[in-house]
TrEMBL record:
This is DUF6593 domain-containing protein. Transmembrane segments: none annotated. Signal peptide: none annotated. Residues 186-197, 206-219 have a biased composition (Acidic residues). Residues 8-180 form the DUF6593 domain. Pfam families: DUF6593. It comes from the Eukaryota. Residues 184-228 are annotated as: Disordered.
Length: 228
């Protein structure tokens, strides 16, 4: 399934399929102190209560406050959305294996481990580790059919999988914001690494930004950007 960003923004946009159906609405509120909270919800919230339509919210890091995720999909302190929710640090949910690597891992609702890699100047690739199968990728592409035929659009392409698509969208937004900030992709504030000390020593297996063909099913690494 291809989800198109209309418009191409991570702060306020709709994720729309090729036939024009809106699947997700993303809205970001900015506060006077400079902090931002992004809400991810289903666009049919008019027919249901706003609370039932909310998939997740992301409170982005500001000054000394780390990015925090709140979602009913998360257990414990992370499941309450809104002011009542404590949330889970994004750097804990999307964790590192190696100190200076921008690559992030998480365990999905299917109990499988997944990896997000940043693709320099292109997008991100999500891979299921036990099968090394690419589950999702983002890119800018020229549309040849459907509602957006003849236009260039940013898309999130998701393959059929056991992982909840809501989890894919939530984790993608965190990773894509980091990638755009590092590539100079239009975010006003360049983000720092929220976990500069890392989440473990590791052996250094070459995780990092990569130049790859997003249509290559193996997602093979062909380049390195270096440490952050």
């Amino acid at each position: 399934m291809d989800l198109f960003f209309v418009p191409n923004s991570l702060e306020n946009t709709l994720l729309v399929s090729a036939n024009g159906v809106a699947h997700y609405q993303i809205q970001t509120t900015s506060f006077r102190n400079g902090s931002q909270i992004t809400l991810i919800q289903r666009p049919d919230f008019i027919e249901s209560s706003p609370e039932e339509s909310v998939i997740a919210e992301i409170e982005w890091h500001h000054k000394n406050t780390p990015t925090v995720i709140r979602s009913p999909m998360l257990g414990g302190v992370g499941q309450c959305v809104g002011s009542r929710g404590v949330g889970v640090k994004a750097s804990k949910y999307l964790y590192k294996r190696h100190r200076f690597s921008p690559v992030r891992y998480f365990v999905g609702d299917d109990a499988k481990e997944y990896r997000w890699k940043l693709v320099r100047n292109t997008g991100c690739i999500l891979t299921r580790l036990d099968t090394n199968r690419d589950i999702a990728c983002s890119m800018t592409t020229a549309c040849v059919e459907g509602l957006f035929a003849g236009e260039r659009k940013q898309i999130l392409r998701i393959q059929p999988c056991a992982l909840d698509i809501d989890v894919v969208v939530l984790t993608f937004l965190v990773m894509e914001r980091k990638r755009r900030a590092r590539d100079g992709g239009g975010l006003e504030e360049v983000e720092r690494d929220e976990d500069p000390q890392g989440d473990g020593g590791g052996s250094g297996d070459g995780d990092g930004d990569v130049d790859v063909d997003v249509n290559d099913e193996n997602g093979a690494d062909s380049g390195m950007l270096g440490e952050i």
